[in-house]
Amino acid sequence: MPPTSQTDEELVALATAGDLDCFNQLVARWERPIYALAYRTLGREEDARDVVQEAFLRAFRGLRGFRGQAKFSSWLYRITLNLCRDWIRRERRAPVVQLPEGTDPIEVADERVAPAESVEDLVARKQMSEAVARAMSELPEEQRVAILLKEYHGLTFQEIADQLDCPLSTVKTRLYQGLSVLRRRLERRQSEEAALRRATWESST
Amino acid sequence: MCNQREKLIGYVYDECESAERAAVQEHLDTCAECRTEIAALRSVRSDLQSWQVPDTEYVSVWRPFAPVAAPSWWQQVPRWAMAAAAGVVMMSGAAGGAAAYMVLNQQPVQASSQTAAVQPVSPVTVNDMNAVEQRLRALVKVEVDRLNSQVQLASSRPSVQMSAEQEAAFHSAFDRQLAELRATTESQRDVINGIYNNLGQIQKGFDTRHAVLTTRVAGLASVLEQGR
After folding, report:
1. Residue A32: which of B55, B64, B68 has the nearest Cβ?
2. Tens digits of residue pLDDT in B1-28
3. What interface predicted TM-score (ipTM) does this complex get?
4. Residues A182 and A139: beta-carbon distance below 8 Å
5. Of the residues A29, A83, B49, B85, which has the fewest C-beta atoms closer than 10 A?
6. Which fold is adopted by the domain A117-205?
7. Whether the model pTM is above 0.90
8. Does any CB of chain A come closer than 8 Å to the CB of residue B45?
9. Distance in angstroms (rounded) separating the CA atoms of residues B100 and B95
10. In whole angstroms, how large is the CA radius of gyration of chain B?
């Protein structure tokens, strides 16, 4: 599908008027960000994909009710977050951390995310990614969602407040508290790893 | 800790007014604790960026809608014209249906000045209703087929783009057809009015019978009550 220069809102208007291909273009434009949000909220690829599909189906069904009172992306984020919330409540469990089986340096290097990065750096980044995922999954939902929307989707404080139906100051507090907790957990993990490395080195000498 | 959480967060995310930013900056020059706090917040933000979504083999979950074919010229006819045409079809169909109803019942049209005396009315059976439906369907089909053939004829024009003269001719022909259909409908209006009068009398007859029966039932109930 060729990229289009039309805005989301223009595509919504055309889709509402019956041009279904415009909705396809909206999906193509927003599917990855919505998947990323669902994945980071739920922690499972399969569930995230289900949520993405349901989110776009709901968006399509509700397109005529979308009056442009918010950005299309904000509306889509809200639908997705509601679906994730429903999923977590239905499953009655916290988001999971999907840990890959071991960390194979060759496999990691194959990702070629940053060519200048050494294999050691890539391994360290992968381990950090897992640690962040685990620490995030342990945060209270309201702090986790605020951080997700801010760090990975670039929403403003006000946009997050609108998404979560809370005052602006609450958003800042949640961000501050969430980041502080994450920092403590990540620092503890780093000190534990350093101690393990030291013990391994001492036992080998 | 200086109790400046909100301000520090706004500063870290660069989402604050310039005056507030300057104030935080000034505070940081003198407060080592807040400088450490800012550094820690930035560090954890940097760590957060390492969290990757496994989407290297992501395949879309969306099955795209099939592209819609470009609309033919008659779909571009103004909505008012389509609506008017539809209205005319409905009206002539209804008129025809009403005529069919009359033919079926073989009853003369009652003059509107006639009194509301109770006429013996034969009950309408399921077979009667089915017959009326068949007649109505046949009439509507004839009308729809006629209009369809006109639409097909017009659709077979070589080009969608009409010149001003062609467009004027098309509108003129359309208006003429509309006028003819209106005239047909007008001529059938009297027939429809007659049907309505008949229905009104049937309704009144029913109401009268209903009132009589209600009185009788009340009388019988009274007699029964006295007999006890």
Report:
1. B55
2. 577 788 999 999 999 999 999 999 999 9
3. 0.77
4. yes
5. B49
6. Arc Repressor Mutant, subunit A (1.10.10)
7. no
8. yes
9. 9
10. 40
